[in-house]
Each structure stands twice: as structure tokens, then as C-alpha cells.
Amino acid sequence: MRYNEIEFDTYLKNYPDNDGYYGRYGGCYIPDDLKKAMAEINEAYFTIAKSSKFIGELRRIRREFQGRPTPISYLERLSGSLGNVQLYAKREDLNHTGAHKLNHCMGEALLAKYMGKKKVIAETGAGQHGVALATAAAYFGLECDIYMGKVDIQKQAPNVARMKILGANVIEVTHGLQTLKEAVDAAFEAYTKEYRDAIYCIGSVVGPHPFPMMVRDFQSVVGIEAREQFLEMTGELPDAVVACVGGGSNAMGMFSGFLNDPVKIYGVEPLGRGTALGDHAASLKYGTEGIMHGFNSIMLKDENGDPAPVYSVASGLDYPSSGPEHAFLHDIGRVQYDVINDDDTIDAFFKLSRMEGIIPAIESSHAVAYAIQLAQKMGRGSVLICLSGRGDKDMDYIIEKYGIR
To answer: Which residues in the chain are classed under CATH 3.40.50.1100?
Structure first.
């Protein structure tokens, strides 16, 4: 199937199907006890979260607490340095807590509250999901356990402190590579013991159904706002939309607003240090079909077929798979997925900071770097970047590893 065979005006209603599949990707590959818990969440989502009361409360929260809508900024000086292509940024760094993650965390925590749950459980890599969920838990009066790899705890000390100040219990994960995959493993293990009283608030469009769908739907506010704002600013749609992709929540939120438009869409994965296995986390570019963490998608595998070790300078992108909807959009050709390495990412980090007064998250810097290269190839037109988060969390790491350029 190719994307021109799909009715994208009804796409969000038709995908996933009732079993949680986007084509052959997705599903719910978990123990039977947890399947009951997922069925409960799915039922609650389609009853509670689709009610006018829930939607009205979430809209109020977004407006009065999160500070939505976030603006689009025209990157005038950066654009001028590149020629005739105009670059714009959807400023999710200005969303409360500094990234897009709060969009789905407030939705998931509100759903947990309506379901009578007492605790939220999650994993985090860069710490932004952990901070967002800790914020949501504090807002709704819920307990909060955040699992985080030891390596990421050391890289993201400011976010660890923020989570603790907000009242979350940050649990260090010390097995394996001690990064995002292991944090997900640990969080799932904890959830199997606590699912009656807790809800696992997955941090991206990954995991068993219904989480890839729920997170996409809660994040779709990014694409809805961006499309309306860009039309109002310029009178036309962008020629291209760009977002970074690890698990892919910011990207699916952004892309969902433009899937039915004549707009080129680019998802940017981390090439890291190079193409050798273990030096990158570009699963869609170099992976094959496989099941992990309860869903079928495209993943990076070792010689035994298990999830391979991965690396990225961005803690939020070092995951050996990607959301099943991204795998589907990749296969049908609606979204083009490409890669950016560490060096170009860090150059873009400093370039945006110096030329526009915006310090981006390292994750978002992958999208900025790709947009810069894309602009140089296009020659004319416009590119809208999803600036998924701010770089406060990365300052200590950047200065220690790269210095001040």
C-alpha cells in the first residue's frame, strides 16, 4: 500500500484499527494480566476521554496551566544566512515544563484521575517526560514513580532535580546500558505488579495499544495549532515539516496536522557517531521488523535478534525502535525518514542559540540541523520545524563535552 491509496481526511479515525494496528505494526504483545489492564485503559479512553467534560477540562488546563497555544517563530536571521528558504519553528519549548511532553502527560494523568488510580508510573530518557509527568502528578495529587537509567541521570541532572522537587520518586536503573530501553524495561516490570492501582504513562507513541494512539491524539494539538498558525502568518502551508524522531511523540503530534496536505514531511533520526551498530539509534533507517516493549515496529537488532545497543548524543532519542505509526508512515512513503549525526546536531544547537536567541534541546537540534541542510538543497520555499523542547537540561552536558563555541 502507498500513501496515495489512503483517505487521509479520515486517517486519524481509521488508524489504528480496533486491535491497535497501523498496517502490520502496533498491537498489544504483553502478558494476559496486563492485557486486561490495557483493555481497561482503552475502554476508559473511548468513554471518559472522548466526553465533553474531559475534553473541556483538558482544554482549560492547556490554556490556563500549560500556556497553550505555543507560538510559531519566524527564524529570520537563520533563514537569511541560508538563502531564500524561510525557516519557522513551532515553539514547544515554550510549553510549561519546557517541552511537548506535558501535552500527553496532562491527558494521561487526567484519565488516571477519572479512573480512580492512585499512582502514575513512567520511564524517562532526557528527563522531559519525567518532569512533565511529575508536574501532572503534582497537579492532580497522584503518586509518581519515574524510572531512569543511571547514564541519563548523570547527563540530565537538572531534570532529575526538578522531578524530585515536584515530589516524584526517581528510581535509578543500573542494568544493561543504563539508558532509555532499560528504563522502559524497569517501568514495565513495576507496572505488572501495580496495575490495579496505577497507570503506566508511556512517554512516547510506543508500547502496547492503546498508548501509541492515545499519545498521538493528545499530542495532535501541536499539529492542529501549527497548521492554523502558519496559515494565519503566511497565507499558505509550509513546503516541508521537520521533526526529530526517537519514539516519536513530538513528530506524530506535528505530522498529524499535515498528513492530508500537499506538504513534504521529514522525520529525523539520530545517526550518532556513524552507521555501525551501537553507534546510532536510527531504527527506521537501518532496522528490521520486530517486537519489543509490547508492540511490533521496526527496530535495531543484535546478532541474536534482540534489541541492539544504541547511542545518541540526545538522551531522549537513544531507543532501539520507533513508534508503530512511524513504521507504517515510513512503509507507505507518506513521511521520509532520514538521519543527522552528532556533529551536525551540536553545530545546529549553537547556531540557533547564537542567531535566534533560542537554546534548543539536543533532541530538537537534530530537526534544526536537518532543516538547515534541507533549506540549502531546496533553494526556495518554507520549512516548519517542531522545536520540541528547550536546552536548559543539556547545558551542563554540552559545556562539559563540547565547551562554549
So the answer is: 20-62+101-212, 67-99+220-402
Q: What whole-number distance in Å separates Cα of residue 112 and Cα of residue 4?
A: 38
Q: Which fold has domain 20-62+101-212?
A: Rossmann fold (3.40.50)
Query: Are 131 and 101 within 8 A, CB to CB?
Result: yes
The answer on pLDDT for 58 being more than 80 is yes
* Contacts of residue 160, Cβ cutoff 8 Å, sequence gap at least 6: 127, 148, 153, 170
| CATH number listed for the domain at residues 67-99+220-402 | 3.40.50.1100
Which residue out of 108, 123, 182, 225 is catalytically annotated? Answer: 123
Residue tagged active-site, from 101, 113, 301, 393: 101
pLDDT of residue 192: 87
101 is catalytic: yes
Q: Is 264 a catalytic residue?
A: no
Catalytic residue at 123? yes
Query: Cell 526538578 maps to which residue?
Result: 162
Q: Using one digit for the tens of pLDDT, what is the confidence trace for 106-117?
A: 999 999 999 999
Q: In this predicted model, what pLDDT tens digit does every residue of 10-23 receive, in sequence order? A: 999 999 999 999 99
